[in-house]
């Protein structure tokens, strides 16, 4: 067969999609036609048949795909997006420092630009001056969340508006922190279910910072892609453990009180009025010593955590959501969940009721000079008061968590994340224009 014979050769249609997204098989007639053409063309089909099939398939209209790309998250609201939003497949965390000479005026202009752009991108509207990588994609559950670090208030002359909750976190014995990868004047969290959509938002916001702010540090993370499992499941971390079982739920009667700053001082809040509806984010880069962890037997790994690796159920029995029976012992008389097991120590009822909403991303940044994986968890937790959420839990973990031998805290940051923007408002407006 020659190139001129292509139009006479039946070709494969563009794949049709069922409601489950699977490709429908070729019809019997088309399949037989293709086989017949192969018999006539012989070896020549191998040279040009693939090109012919591709060209013919391209000429037929493709069916729309059912995709997570169509899902959008509203920008406006009582709270900023990206806090209670379901876990996303891709994340970028980036901190900025205001440029020398930039102050309150420049910060307000920057937050106005950023908010306008985030509102547009989260709705799936890309523009010619964006990076272009997301032109043909939907919003893909994109969220953009903005926060302020402790140093922001001195740079903008707003020290009197700085919340007491932004006081520096205490030092922990397991910390090996790199100051260059921690804190910052401004913090941005970007999440999406498509890597290109997330990158487009990151690149656009970084470019729009212009002369007002400079990147201090950036970290990239990932989670399981929605739809990768047969049913919704709690995500796993890079140790293979189910991670996030005991997260507070929005249906809990005290969820709002634990996670978000009350709407007014009358509700018992010590925070400034501009933080109403906001939350505090603790951000930690936690490296997992995977080579050491993977040397443990499955049983030993489960003893360290206090849960089964297969399904996240407590070692005392039941399913992932079963409450651990902390006083249950084995035939040897010892507790089935050890005194230093991570699941025991981190429980709210073992920490005076302290609770935080964990919403992390995993990371893998290659290998160090010794060939050891530079991988772990970009830990992000949300609470109305870090001194009542993160700090008491971390203090207890620091004193005797069996997991501590297999992790290393390498950077840390604490950020005040104001409430969500109203229609026509930018994030932080109530602070910067107060």
Features:
single chain, 434 residues, five-stranded antiparallel beta sheet, four-stranded antiparallel beta sheet, 11 helices
**Helical proportion?**
10-25%
How far apart, in Å, are the first and last alpha carbons?
A: 77 Å
Largest sheet: 5 strands, antiparallel
Oligomer: single chain
Order of helices and strands: HHEHEHEHEHEHHHEEEHEH
Q: Kindly report the average pLDDT value.
A: 87
Task: Calculate Rg over CA atoms.
Answer: 26 Å
Q: State which percent range the strand residues make up.
A: 15-25%
State the secondary-structure class. Answer: alpha+beta
**Stretches where pLDDT falls below 50 for ≥5 residues?**
1-57
Number of domains: 2
Q: What is the 3D form?
A: globular
Q: How many helices does DSSP assign?
A: 11
Number of strands: 9
Summarize the structure.
With 434 residues, the protein is of the alpha+beta class. It contains 11 helices and 9 strands. It has 2 domains: 57 residues, no CATH class; 365 residues, no CATH class.
Task: Please characterize this protein's 3D structure.
Pfam families: Dyp_perox_C, Dyp_perox_N. Its main location: other. InterPro entries: Dimeric_a/b-barrel, Dyp_perox_C, Dyp_perox_N, Dyp_peroxidase, EfeB/EfeN, TAT_signal. Its cofactor is heme b. The structure is a single chain. With 434 residues, the chain is an alpha+beta fold. The chain has two domains: 3-59, no CATH class; 68-432, no CATH class. 24% of the residues lie in helices and 17% in strands. The protein has eleven helices and nine strands. Strands 5, 6, 7, 8 and 9 form a five-stranded antiparallel beta sheet that branches. The chain has a four-stranded antiparallel beta sheet with strand order 2-3-1-4. It is globular, with a radius of gyration of 26 Å. The termini are far apart.
């Amino acid at each position: 067969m020659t190139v001129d014979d292509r139009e006479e050769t039946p070709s494969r249609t563009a794949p049709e999609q069922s409601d489950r997204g699977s490709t429908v098989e070729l019809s019997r007639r088309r399949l037989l036609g293709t086989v017949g053409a192969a018999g006539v063309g012989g070896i020549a089909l191998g040279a040009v048949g693939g090109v012919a099939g591709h060209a013919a398939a391209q000429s037929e209209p493709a069916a729309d795909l059912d995709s997570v790309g169509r899902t959008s998250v509203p920008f406006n609201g009582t709270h900023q997006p990206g806090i209670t939003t379901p876990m996303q497949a891709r994340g970028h965390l980036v901190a900025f420092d205001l440029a020398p000479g930039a102050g309150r005026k420049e910060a307000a202009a920057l937050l106005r630009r950023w908010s306008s752009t985030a509102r547009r991108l989260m709705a799936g509207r890309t523009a010619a001056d964006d990076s272009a990588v997301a032109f043909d994609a939907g919003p893909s559950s994109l969220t953009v969340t903005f926060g302020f670090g402790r140093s922001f208030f001195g740079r903008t002359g707003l020290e009197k508006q700085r919340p007491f909750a932004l006081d520096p976190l205490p030092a922990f014995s397991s910390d090996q922190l790199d100051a260059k990868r921690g804190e910052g004047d401004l913090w941005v969290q970007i999440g999406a279910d498509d890597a290109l959509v997330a990158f487009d938002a990151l690149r656009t916001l970084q470019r729009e910072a212009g002369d007002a702010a400079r990147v201090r540090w950036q970290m990239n993370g990932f989670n399981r892609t929605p739809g990768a499992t047969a049913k919704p499941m709690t995500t796993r971390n890079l140790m293979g453990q189910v991670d996030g079982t005991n997260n507070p739920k929005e249906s809990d009667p005290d969820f709002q009180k634990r996670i978000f700053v009350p709407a007014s001082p009358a509700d018992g809040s010590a925070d400034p009025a501009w933080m109403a509806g906001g939350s505090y984010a603790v951000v930690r880069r936690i490296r997992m010593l995977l080579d050491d962890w993977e040397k443990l037997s499955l049983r030993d790994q489960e003893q360290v955590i206090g849960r089964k690796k297969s399904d996240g159920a407590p070692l005392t029995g039941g399913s992932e959501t079963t409450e651990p029976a902390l006083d249950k012992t084995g035939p040897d008389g010892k507790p089935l969940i050890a005194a230093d097991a991570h699941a025991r120590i981190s429980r709210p009822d073992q920490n005076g009721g302290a609770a935080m909403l964990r919403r992390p991303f995993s990371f893998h940044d290659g290998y160090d000079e010794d060939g050891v994986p530079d991988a772990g968890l970009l830990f992000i937790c949300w609470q109305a008061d870090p001194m009542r959420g993160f700090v008491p839990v971390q203090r207890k973990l620091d004193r005797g968590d069996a997991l501590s031998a297999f992790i290393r805290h390498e950077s840390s940051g604490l950020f005040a994340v104001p409430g969500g923007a109203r229609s026509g408002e930018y994030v932080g407006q109530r602070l910067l224009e107060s």
